Sequence to fold (872 residues):
Amino acid sequence: MKTAVKPPGSDTARPTDGARPAHRLPFWVNQQLGLLVLIVVLAAVFGTLRPAFFNERLVLFPLLRDVSTLTVVALAQMVVLSIGHMNLAVGRMAAFGAFFAGFGYDRLGLPLVLGLVLCLVAGAAVGALTGWIIARTGVNSFVVTLAMDFALLGLVPLLYSACTENAAFTTRPAGLAELRSSSLADICLGPVCGSPAVPQVAQFTVLALAGLAFLYYRTRTGRELLLTGANPAAAELSGIPTGRRVVLAHALSGTLAALAGFMAAVGTGTFRASIGDDFMLPSFLGAVLGGTLLTGGAVSVVGALLGTTLVGVIRKGLDLLGVGLESLNIYLGCVLLLALSADRVRTVVSYRKVVRST
Amino acid sequence: MSDVLLECDSIVKVFPGVRALDGVGLTMTAGSVHALLGENGAGKSTLIKVITGVHTPDDGRLLRRGEEIHLRSPLDATRAGIGVVHQERNLIPGFSVAENITLQNPPSRRGLVDRDAMTAPAERCLAELGLDLDPHRPVRELSVAQQQLVEIAKALYTESQVLLLDEPTASLSPQEAEHLFDVVRRLKERGTCVVFVSHKLEEVFAICDTVTVLRDGRSVLESAPLSDYVQDDVVTLMVGRQHSVTDMTPRTVDPTARPALSLSGLNTAAGHRDVSLDIRPGEIVGLYGLVGAGRSELVKAVLGLDRVTGGEIRVDGEPARIRSPREALHTYGIGYLTENRKEEGVFLEQPIVRNITVTVWKKLARFLGDISSRAEKDVAQDLVDRLGIRVSGLAQNAGELSGGNQQKVSLAKWLAAETRLLVVDEPTVGVDVRTKHAFHELIWELARGGLPILLISSDLTEMITLADRVLVMADHRIRGEVPNDHDYDNMSGQIIRIIHDRAHPAAAASNGTP
Fold:
């Protein structure tokens, strides 16, 4: 920047009031696009090294089933991140919800759908309770959800041991086994059949994604959630019922966590207390990689899917390459760091570019 | 010419889409007070950030006693003897005065902080400023003005030769500001160069020796002796054209109309006692008082954010019980333009369109609660045009706008909601001369259109320009009412007398009941 570049246009045309033109950064800075490119490239690399990576039934099907579940987990976290809160109890809420589904099938003899509804209602209730405590007492969400996590950590196994003999519900209602193993290939519209790689449980993920996208991008409630996250004081003074929005966000988070718990239980075939044990870290990973701010006020629904997919692809690819579990986690850490720094590098480079053209 | 401490030589700083500084020069001489003036967005804050090492300049040189220096961080600047007191307070509330003063270089013994050795240097710095503060008191117990002075003491401790004060009097009462000026004069005597940034020209002319005026990122007047200029010259230089105050169209209020808002004998948990006031359609009622008199707190209690313990609120003649700002907005049509726009007024990291339409989403929402983005944009665009808000697009984040434009966005939200009563709290703090005048016209025109307005302000000139009558509040009570005759001397005399007369018995009473 040693040469004195004339500003574009005459001097009088310049904004005199500090009204800067919005930062129009080039399209390739888009974080979601970057993730998509990274996923495609990594999949191609893994596929070239191990052609088995593209085996639809043995590799892609389980991969997508995991991604489906963890995306819902990431969405559960994203909803509370949108109001600037956290949900550390996301895994335990999943276990809590799954317990009610199992209880419904085993004790009440409910059909598949009603059991799912019971599970979601239980998740919503425990989430709403958490949100209510936060809104009412003003205690930090970190603390409240941590406490909730501990409470459920004790409560869920107690419920299982009170209601079952070997700490798991194994009754399977009609349709559960199909839900577990069927893919789009089993659903045919005449001669046209779906791909055997896409599991049927992905329907829940698609529904959750579509629902949240509608909520955040189209509705009043979604906007109010974001503004509550961006600045709670200003939101309250602008007439947004911030207390209710906090309860709503946590209830939604609980519902989505319960849905993820149900999907995980479907995947393993049994309803047990250990469901959701490993949900917490992926929930943050997927949401934050996707572009959701930890401070609240900005979410990316598609980003949660892409972030989770990226992690899933890396995990599966390294697994196929024969990397052991411990070293797999080291590699995973490195790749994620690279992925996030690549994003930062892109932003900085494009920022410089825009500055230079000014 | 005396000793030049620090010199900026054609500094250039570029942000995406804007040349914030475009060849700015500034010469800081020992033992002088240098005014740095300019409208919002002229580049004052950017220049301060370059001098204090926050931003690296894209071109130009910084010279310290003739030698070029490169500041890579605020710490580098501190080491080079450049101190700054920002508009916001930057102290650690839980630490004591002495700990805060010595924070950047705490006296230590064998790698451990030596608390006892802190007191002496802290006391020395405080004494040099003529301050009588206990160095062991935690900073959170001090008033805003005292905290500011502690920050200056902190700059003394690091042996700052150049001290930048960014709008230091924005949140001070006149007496506190006077004390601050004494401190500035002391600093000047000991050979420090104080750079003084302020929108209040009276202050600038009272204490500054030299002046630099920025406009659109350039220095239109560079380190010139202030005595060669009068206020009007400086305003012309800042604005870039002849600045003239036009008379506003006269406005009449029907004194028999039913009040839009009426408080009678209101007591609140915040400490208000027996507060009564009426606001009629088309009337601007001023609520004047010093900082801490309880004006904003009164409004917050009326909006349901604090408990009302007695008395009655009537909206349009009907008794009202307002439980939340939401109810105030949707049921009673009361809007509150907050005093603190960054914390309570605008959503800095959100687009302008959301900032404006937040109050009308309820109306715009369709069957499923979804909002047509076109309807939303229409509402926002209409207000952006009406208020003349300078934006590059509705999707721009509000935080990228200048202070005056942010304030307009904040107002636009209430106009969008078509409120039937507007409370305007310190509308023009930190807003430059031109925007301030535009804002006054805007408020005046709203009232002319029949909107009742409660104006809270500590700016007496503003009060006298706008209000129909001025209520004076001190110590959470209304002390008197003065009908406005638009004569500054007469009005200020009456108002100050009301505050002053009652100040003594009030002080005695509050001493009696701790």
